[in-house]
Amino acid sequence: MGLGLLVAAVALSASAGPADSIAVPADTLPTYASEATRALVARAQERHAADDTTVSDYTARLRYRVSFSLGKRKWARMPTYAVEEQEGTVHWQAPNDLRLDILGRRTASRSKDITLSSDFSRPWFVPRGLGDSVRIFGNDFPTRAALHPLAADGPEWYRYELTDSIALSTARGTTVRLYAIEVVPSRPGPSLVAGTIWIDSASAQVARFTFRYVGTALWVDRDDPDPDLDAIGGAKKANAFINRILTVDSDLEYGLQDEKYWMPSRQVLSGTLQIPIISDIVIPFEAITTFWDYDINRGQPVVFETPPPDSGAKRTMDRESDSLEAVVRSGKWANGRYEVHRPPVDSLKRYAAWGDSLTLNLNPQEDQQVRDVQAQLAQLTEELPNDITGIKPGGVNYEAFADIFRYNRVQGPSLGYGYAHDVPGWKFTRAQGTLRFGFSDARLTGQLGLIREAPSGRWRLEGYRAIDEVEPFFKVNTFGNTLNGVFAAHDDADYYLAQGGRIGYETSVGRGLELDVRTRFEDQQSVETDATSAINDFLGGSGDFPANTPVTEGFFVGLTATLSGVAGTGTWRIGAEGLGGENGTTGRFMAEIRQRAFGMRGVTITGRGGVATNDPLPQMAFRLGGLETVRGFNYGTYQGQAFWSVQGDWTPFKGQVRPVVFADVGQAGDLGSVLSQKPLVGVGAGLSFFNGIVRFDFSVPLQGPASGLRFDIQFGAPR
């Protein structure tokens, strides 16, 4: 999976325009922060404009690494989910001819079902300089090239400030001084950058360039007549939407070769893709290319094996990435031509000159460097006006589809409306409000709060009147639970009316270690089951939901802390919660572990357990039964001070549609007698679609107070 696939998933059009076609409006902001800044920028511009004749050609080795993670928070330090590395050689000659030979490829993943496979039709890296158009990944990304800050008309669009300097010592003892120039757009434009350029004081060459793409037409051309764009409100809205869910940062490092040539050393493209509405999943991604073993000015031309693109002669056609044959891809690009040579797959696998082992995660130093650049660029762009970043400051907002439409046994069908807006002058902070109306209970609920999503963590401050769940570990106000309620009259939650406020903080305490701490102050009142499922009744069921368990009413103060992590191919969570008020106090501890097991494909074991203080409040008692504990039974079939459950799932085959078989067992009751009670036992089978994102399960109880076949729908809960 290359970045092109990632962009294709969100970009609605790909009509590019030249960076130098931008009309220049009147200047409104100062260009240079100081005279020293102006002088250094002028020198750097002069060097940028001059043809660099010091390097006529070079060869080098390179390694490309692409990876992604999965998380539920933008700045979470999640372990890498899948990674791919490729190694090869590059031969370049002026003005811009290039041959790339891929020699080896290797991959790793936490799941046998997902494997990355990049097969670019052109070189993805910057072989020398950027020119006046800032694009990466084969000069294809973003859709519209950004104007380079050192281009001749750069000062008409950017503001420059000299912010830092550093002295470096070379292997021969020479001191090299680099100056940092912070660059931000001074006015709105279709495609611009914000970042920092490090300039060699002696040669005025660029030694490093870190930047984030900003602008109003990065992904979709504003003049595109595509009717699909008209359907969503045009290119402006499409760009604003993509800018909100996708961030792209780049870090281009150059290394001083032979103490006189600044050559590509390390090029990083990183960012996050947030999946809106469908789920709360965040996908961080990284693509890192490193260069070494340079041989400069050999005087040997690049040897091409295909005819020139303009010759009209027959050239090698593109083939699929899993081709058993060698593939040559060629074409034209800025001021030159290129060829990409890829040997057969078996040859790529036999490559043995890696020199190290493939690991899923970056080493701590490199990982921290990537994160530091992302944080610095985020801080920089947060200070820019929204009309420059191309991000709408506010609008209708839903974190998941269940925020729009929800169905449970208390509210029945309910509709929600959410709105969010950036808080002026507060970095990384949004004000967010929601309203919801339940048609069965005829109750209006809502909440209003502030959310600060910063590199240090996520803060939440909220006031609310809401139908909340008593379940501490797995929230079920999801689209999957809605589908279950509509079609099967199943609801895996007990509810109460909460009125009050809460404060929450989420942060990473290590790679793959997430801490979530929350405190709440609220009045809790019992609510009744008011809904039925007419569709389930029509399909042959009763349409009736079980009664909702009442709570002990009154004002309570609660504190919850949860620590979750990733270990190998499994995940785990531990949590503690306390709830106290004038009508009672209860504390409880919970734990969960999910692990692929037995070395067999598709076998997953999930274990859960918990214990509470004696005689717990009803809203703090553990529930046994339902999709998350023992399938084949209603949620809350057993309740008590302590519980445990084990679920086993087996999906023996690959594919987008897979059969699943499962078996569950669990007990719940008083701590002293829970193990002596007869356990609930349920088994079943179903079909899993798209790696468990959608599942249809049929289950039956083997032991316990239930009978008959049970049908359940799961959505967004891969196993």
- What is the tally of beta strands? 33
Structural class: mainly beta
Main β-sheet description:
17 strands, antiparallel
What's the overall average pLDDT, rounded? 87
Radius of gyration: 29 Å
Total helical segments? 9
Strand content: over 45%
Percentage of residues assigned to helices:
10-25%
Shape: elongated
- Low-confidence stretches are 1-27, 317-322
Alpha-carbon distance between the two ends: 23 Å
Number of domains: 2
Write up what this structure looks like.
This protein has nine helices and 33 strands. Mean pLDDT is 87; it is low at 1-27 and 317-322. The protein folds into two domains: 3-389, no CATH class; 400-715, membrane protein fhac: a member of the omp85/tpsb transporter family (Porin, Beta Barrel). With 719 residues, it is mostly beta strands. A hairpin with a 5-residue loop joins strand 8 and strand 9 (206-214). The strands form four sheets. The chain has a 17-stranded antiparallel β-sheet that branches. A twelve-stranded mixed β-sheet has the order 6-7-8-9-10-11-12-1-2-3-14-13, with helices on both faces. The two termini are 23 Å apart. It is elongated and about 85 Å long.
Protein topology:
Blueprint lengths: L2 H6 L26 H15 L7 E13 L10 E14 L3 E13 L23 E4 L4 E7 L10 E12 L5 E11 L6 E9 L5 E9 L12 H5 L3 H11 E12 L3 E14 L7 E15 L30 E7 L2 E7 L2 H6 L13 H19 L3 H4 L4 E3 L8 E4 L3 E11 L6 E10 L4 E12 L2 E13 L9 H10 L6 E16 L2 E14 L7 H5 L15 E14 L2 E12 L2 E13 L6 E10 L9 E3 L13 E3 L1 E9 L6 E13 L10 E10 L4 E10 L6 E6 L4
Parallel strand pairs: 3-14
Antiparallel strand pairs: 1-2, 1-12, 2-3, 4-5, 6-7, 7-8, 8-9, 9-10, 10-11, 11-12, 13-14, 15-17, 16-17, 17-18, 18-19, 19-20, 20-21, 21-22, 22-23, 23-24, 24-25, 25-26, 26-29, 27-28, 29-30, 30-31, 31-32, 32-33
